[in-house]
Design brief:
six-stranded mixed beta sheet; rod-shaped; 4 helices; 474 residues; six-stranded antiparallel beta sheet; mainly beta
Length: 474
Amino acid sequence: MQRKKLHIKRNFALYFLGLFSFYGHRTYAQTTTSINLPQANIQARTDYNTAINVGTYTSVITLLPSFYVKSTAATFTSTTSGSFPASLVHMKLSSIGSLVLLGLSTNNEVALSTGGGVLYAAVASVASGAVTANARIATASQTWTAGVFTNDVSFYTQGVLAGSISPASYTLSIIIPGFISPPSSIGTTSIAVNDLSFYRSANGISANQIIPVSSTVPYVPSIRSSSAQFSFSTGLPYNTLPVSPVSTVSATLSGVGTATSAILSTSDQTLTSAAGIAVPANNSSSITHTYAISTALLKSNFIQAGTYTAPLTYTWNKLSSAYPTTPVQAQASGSLNVVVSDLGEIIANQQSVNLPFTTTSNYVNGVSTNMPTHIKLSKTTPYNLYVRATSSSFTSGVNSIPLSVLRIGPMAGQTGVNTVTLSTTAQQLIQNADPVIDRTLDMQYSIPASQTSNLLGKPAGTYTADIIYSFVAP
């Protein structure tokens, strides 16, 4: 009996050891599983969930195994685009064979780490079968750069006779797409010339357009116009249609360290150096495009009131050195308007004009007074210039002299100005002149010898009348 008993023990020991030797040394070929993180989730900063096949669970005998997951490295890495923490990828078992785990309180979601974590601790026997899991990638805290990021992941069991999952490990690839995503349409940028001060400013005039751009690749922005000239429209009077080249406008990016200035053209003009713009934090940025016109070019090309329009094409190109090797490009259309208001201004540089009659010669020959740069005119539509008096005569107390003694006209060398006799009715000095900014008029005031008789017998004194220059005849 003792020999028989010893014989039984030896057989059991051989069976037990053989069982552990079989599962302890099994090897499997490593495979690769890929997850494509959608552009939409990156832009919206929302988590991405997808089902993956983990492998096959093989049960040994009916025990209560625990299922685990871990990563080999603390980061997913790319040969071209850096890395991101493995903990952004979360795993949760969906099923093991016919056992559905979704909704079970004992089924845990685990963030990948090198230390591993318990996915599911069985409370009943688990039969062999295919293992599926849900992979959740948390996008909100990461700036994603296009590339293929890999890490080795292991799903495994622990416990006496817990069975095994094959393959024991596999390479998990997270593929981040390369994209540049601006708005589909940029809209219209308007430079509003609504004050004459812009024609006198040392810096000219400018306007900004803020364009949001999402990207996972560094890029170089550029801009072009499909027309070499601004088109022009207006409901206001004009003498000739203005011809204004788009090259009068410069474009640049504000707040971008690599920004360069470009003159608008019908060919693409880059707005940064070759270094371009890096992938922005959280994959989203708002780039301010600034359009400027110098004072000199504003005066020479945009005096006529109306709307000047140039169609624009914006292009964003991935740096050729960045992943992927194929080009990534985005385009959007917009327009640039220069809107010139109907503006006008008349300034009398001297507020008083004196015509002294102090000698006999003054009465014999008449008197005239020259007023260089007396009037300064600005008008963004064709204009007429009128002059009139506000009272019916020159007065000194109760005494008066007729307005008609006074002539107003140009000084010698001043062209385009008529000589008129002062009246309470507006008299036209200039007719239908082209728009102008800060035109100065050299004027002469005179009482000719033919009118001095109207001054004879008048008491000594200063006779005055207020005179008004205007663009319209009231």
